[in-house]
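Handout, tutorial session.
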Amino acid sequence: MKLLGKYHAILAGVLLGMAFPTWSVYPLAWVALILVFVPAFRASVQSCGARFFVAGLVFHLFVLQWLLANIFWAGGWAVWGYAVLSVYMALYWGLFGMLWAGMRDRLPVVPLAIASAVLWIAMETLQSILLTGFGWSALGYTQGRYESVLQLASLGGVSLLSGILVAFNVLVAQTIAQPTRKIPHALAAFALLVVSHIGGSLLLDEADYGPEPYTVGMFQSDFPQQMKWDHDYTVDMVHRAAEKTRQVAAYEEVDLFVWPEALIMAPIETYGIHETLSQLTRSVETPLYTGSSRFSAERGGWTNSSYLFDQRGEIAGIYDKIHLVPFGEYAPLGSIFPFITQVVPTIGDLVPGDALTIFEAGGRRFGPLICFEVLHAPMSEWLIRENAEMLVVITNLGWFGNTNAIDQELEISRLRAVETRTPLVHCANTGHTGVFDPYGRFTAVGEPFRRFAATAPVAQAEPRLIPWGPRWFRWIAVAGAVIILVLIVLSPGNRLRFEPSAQP
């Protein structure tokens, strides 16, 4: 550890970043933070905060590098946005480090690990809700392909996975930093490792597809963004998608067709698009779900929307995207400070929808989510509470090319399927298109970055052992973090020390 010197926080950020896709060296998430926790046992409060800030900054610069692809669309502002967002997210880590330093010498072995996990979950919760929320980098997303541990998300969501990872890192760090008490630390770490793996394995099962599997047909368009913005191709793209859909329907019975977000680049009332979609769904006698934009008179602006056409060619439902992407679909605080839109370029100027909805197609209820909305777990939970039998995500990550955003978003979708124990259909313009079963297994229906139309069976939803767990676990942790911090502050003689700890 001494050989690493001042670079241990930087290395920790790099290693933890490599645990995320596309590198996906997920075991690194179990040990990377040890490099920060070990020296933190001897650091002052401000030094501990600085160490975690540096680790968090390097980590986010590593994980969020896909944001640099926006240079093509936003110019140099993309670099500034990438840097500012990384610094902002790292500030949470710095605050965690300072608060952790305030409690490290006041709690015994296992309670310190538990308190650390609770504090970390509270931090990630704040990241996911403040300033519209951006919980993209939650540690639990690293475990998407760790099939056994992954199942614990059905009990407490991605927050539970993050908490387990942090607790294990703390216990191992204690074993190294406090050698006089290494046996209880090591035993506790080993027990956590064994229990999390065995417990997760017990929750793993085979998906139930029923006697007659529900079949969804998906079209991955792989149309480049330059082509999408060229009006000469607007109708052509729709006709190509319709032709591919007819070809699939001619050979296989399908319950629902899904096209990705941003395949239709004009309002469906224009260029005869509505008639094309109506004729298509009538001819194949199958509903179609896809995205488009529309002008909402009641909201006074354009929305990023999705439509369900039934087998009679009629619009059976419309969903307007609620959670818009800052600077991608709207300018934050733009209505209060109009100059923002003049200083910082935004790709779109949309208004949000006001309600989630449930569609029904082919005898099954499904909850629609558009692109990054899959990042916000409470939206998926609401849809399940409203008896959605599957989730359908339509997305367009063509903005980011062949970057790590493609694989990272897929792992986020995987966690939503496991948390809700509900199958999830993921239809992308580029990248990965396929279906997750309720246990997180992904059935891809084609090669990434290739144009294709194909089908896949969709499993039935599974019951959850603790139905309220994923929804409330993180808030229980937040309450626990508040209680822990209050008790520490109120304890006699337990002021936060800003000098180095005397801990050996």
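The second record follows below. Compare its token runs with those of the first.
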Amino acid sequence: MVTHFFMIRILLLILLTFPVLAQENKKPFRIGVAGLTHGHVHWVLNRAHDGDFEIVGVAESNRALAEKLLNQYKLPLSLLYTSLDEMLDKAKPEAVTAFGNTFDHLAVVRACAPRKIHVMVEKPLAFSLEHAKQIQQLAKAHSILVLTNYETTWYGSNQKIEELFRANKPMGNVRKVVVHDGHEGPKEIGVGPEFLEWLTDPVKNGGGALMDFGCYGANQVTWLLKGERPLSVLAVTQQIKPHIYPKVDDEATIVLTYPAAQGIIQASWNWPFGRKDMEVYGERGYLIADRQGSKIKAAHDKPEEFVAASDLPQPNHDPFAYLAAAVRGEIEIHPYDLSALENNMLVMEILEAAKTSAKTGKAVSLSRKQ
């Protein structure tokens, strides 16, 4: 009887310990980095020694830049390849993170898709809607994930937005969303020369502030409204600083009209300070959220309260942990999640319509089905 009791205890101990052992024995996720000219590349390089993933290769033709960054983050120069194809074939990553110019996103997916290598690009998904459609076709044909990374996806304040406006909707349906994104301007904040060169190029970036920061609002509104398509897109762009940004817009406002709601996206390289915040107004209250948390007024007779942002649960707290979990089938990606391809295809439709509207001075209607 005593022996039987101890055997049960040992079995229970093994069962309780197994998940921990499995986690400890789990191999680091293998990431390849395509390009180093995007300023956000510091995000992945700064995480390179955390242990949950391994950078197995870096493809960058600018050797001086590559050596500088690899030395800065104490990564071996043996990781460097001048060709993306060579890096993919020799390093064999499970997924690639694209940190080059936006125009090159399609080329990265073209190289990765036939090799069954998943891709995460920095926002926006593509240079143009036509490029985005080709990316979508490649992803479907080769059954790979193509995710889009936005800084705002990992804000803890998204939990309050989910709770108040997407789950049981205690504040009722969304009526108006106002999104503010941008900063003083890329040159003004001192982005690196390699980043500035393509960020202010209408081909390599697809535009200026409209593309750089308009995508955030389109992404968040699409997520908030669970993939609802706007009826129309109206946009105004300006060159307030043509002496600094002669080739692209530095100011953009986009108005999205829905059957029972409106979205206003204010994208700018002219804010007096950096900002990424959004206002969501429902039938019975509002929420104003940024990285720090949310100001919430639940009813007209209640005071506004501030709720600090809490940490998002793993792996939804970080783009590279999320990428690994998605590729390995540990989480389910819903069509209009912030990183999902479906969401970002609609983002590209909105941005393309916004560029057309800004040129013509007229609202652009979106077809109801694609």
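Points raised in discussion: The chain has two domains: 9-149, 155-312+337-365.
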